[in-house]
Please model this.
Amino acid sequence: MPTTQTLLEEAGHKTQDSEFFNTVPPGYQRGKHKYVAVLGTVMSGLGKGIFSSSLAKLLKDKALAIAPIKMEGYLNIDSGTLNPYRHGEVFVLDDGLETDMDLGTYERLLDQDLTRDNYTTSGQVFQRVLDKERHGGYLGRDVQMIPHVTGEVKRQLRELAMKQNADVVFIEVGGTVGDYENGFYIEALRQLAFEEGENSVAFVALTYVIEPPALGEQKSKAAQLGLKKLMEAGIQPHMIAVRCQNPVTLSACEKIAMFSNVPMRRVFSMHDRESIYTIPDAMRRAGLDREILTMLNLHSRVDQSHEDDARAQWQGYVKKLKAKPTHEVKIGITGKYASLRDAYASIDKALEHCAAHLGAQINTDWIDTTKLEPEDVPDAVKGFDAIIVPGGFGHRGTESKIATVRYCRERGTPYLGICLGFQMAVIEFARHVCGLEHAASTEFDKDTDQPVISILPEQKKIEGLGGNMRLGGQDVALEPGSLAAFLYGNQTLVRQRFRHRFEVDPSYIDTLTAHGLIFSGRHPKQPIMQVLELPTSVHPYFIGSQFHPELTSRPLRPSPLFMGLVSAAIRHAQPGLAADVPAMRWLHHAKDAVTA
Ligand code: GLN
Model:
C-alpha cells in the first residue's frame, strides 16, 4: 500500500494522469511546517481573528515561528476600495498592501509585521489560476475548482510556510462554513490535512451559543448544526471555541462535545470578557496551547525560558490594563464614519495601549464634522482634553475640521492630526497664520491659487484609483531636538506607514516655516513633509503626521505620538500633576516611561 507521501511524489512526475494534482513547491519538507485552520460556524463577526491571533500568540511566546494568513472569500483583489463603513478600516501593511482590519489584530497580538503573503482573497486566487491558464500552465487540461483552484490554495499555504520559515501557519478563513465564497478554501484545507498526514493540521472551529433573553438559558442547537455542516464538508474539528455572552454552561459544552466528537478538554468557553487581552491567558489556563502542541507534535520545539519572559511581559501589560485608572480624559475624534467604530479600529487600539501604560481612562467621543458648520465647532469641541483629526478622503466636513484645528491651535488643546489631519493643520496654519486666505488642498479645491496641499509630483503621472497612492512603510528622518524626535526616544530615523495621494506643496515650505511651523519629520531624500509640530513654548502639544502612527502601535510598544497626546491630555485635565506620574514622566523622559 503506497503512502500518501509516495503517491504525491509520483503525482509530481505525472500530473497529467493522476488525481493527485501536485502542489508541493520544490524543497518543501513535509512535517517541518504545521497548520492550524480556524473556521467559523453559525455566523460571522464572532471574533475569529481574535481567537486565532490569541492562540497564535501563545505559540509564538514559546518561540515557535508563526505565519498567520487571512483567506478572504470576497472577489476584490485587496481591501483598498472597500467602504470602511461596510467593512471596517483599511489596514495598510509595511509592504503597502491594503488589507482587512483583522491583519491589524494579528500584528498587534503577535507584535509582528506581516506582508502581502499573509493575506489573500478569492479574487487573488482566481486571478493567479487564470493567469496560469493563459500562459498554458495547465498543460491542456480543463481547469477545475478541484484540483486546480484548491491546488492553488494549498500551494500558497505551503509557500508561505517555506518563505516565512514557519513552525505553524495559522489559517483564518473569512466568513462561515456554508458560504459559497469560501467553500473552495475549506475543501483545500481538507485536502491539505489529508496530504500532510497525521499531526500536521489542527482544525479549530468557532461557534456560537445563543442565550435568548426570553428563555434565560443557553441554546446550543445552532452551534450543533454549524459544526455538523463542517463535518459534512469532511472536516472533523479538533478543538472548538464557543462564543457566548456569558460563560458557556457545562451542559451546553457537553452537548457540543458529544455532537462533534471533540473531547471536553478541547471545548473552550470564549465568552465576552472585559478585555480581549485577557483571552490568551484564559486559553492557556484552559490548556489549549498544550493541546495544540500535542496535536501537532510540537512539544520538542518549545523554548520554556522564552515563554516565561513573554508571559511575564504580557501579564505586566494586562495588570496595568486592569488597574484602576488614576486619570480620566476626554478625547474627541472627528470623523465621517463616526457611527462605526470599526472604521477607526486602529486608533481605538492605539489609545487603548496608551491608556494602560499611562493609567488613564480615555473616554472618546466622535465629532461628525459633516453635520457641523464651522462656526459651531468651538462649542462642539470645547470640552475635550485632546483632539484627533484622523485620516480621510473627500471634501465633506473639511471646513469644520479646519475650524477644529484652529480651535486647538489657538486654545492650547492638545492636537494630533493624522494624514488628512496633518494636511488640515497645514491649511489652517497657512490661512490664519501666514495670511494665505485661499489655502486649500487640490483634493477639495482643484482651482485654488494657493494649493498648499497638492498631489504628489511623482504621482501626477499615474492614473487610476487605488494605483496612485503612496502606500506602506517609509523612512521618516526626524529633526534632532524636535518634539517628534524626543517622543521617539531621540531616534533620528523611524519607519512609519503611509496611505495618501496629497502632500505639502514644496513651494510653500519656506513660508510656513518662516511663520513658525516646524516640519520635524521629512523624507530622508525628497522634499516630502511627514511630521509637523508647533514649538512646545507656543503650544503644549500640537503635532501632525502624514503617516498613520496608529497602524504600528502595539500593546507593549505603544505609538509615541499617541503616548504624547494622551499624556498631554492628562496634563490638560489635571494641570497641577506631580512630575513622577507616568504621564508626566512620559512627557519629560519619553521612551523609558513605557518600560518603567
Ligand atoms: N485624502 C488625503 C490624501 O489622499 C489624506 C489621506 C488619508 O488621510 N489617509 O492625501
User: Anything to note?
Assistant: The chain has two domains: 4-316, 325-588. The pocket of glutamine is lined by residues 391-393, 419-420, 443, 499-502 (CB under 6 Å). Residues 4-316 form a domain with the Rossmann fold fold (CATH 3.40.50.300). Residues 242 and 269 are 5 Å apart (CA to CA).
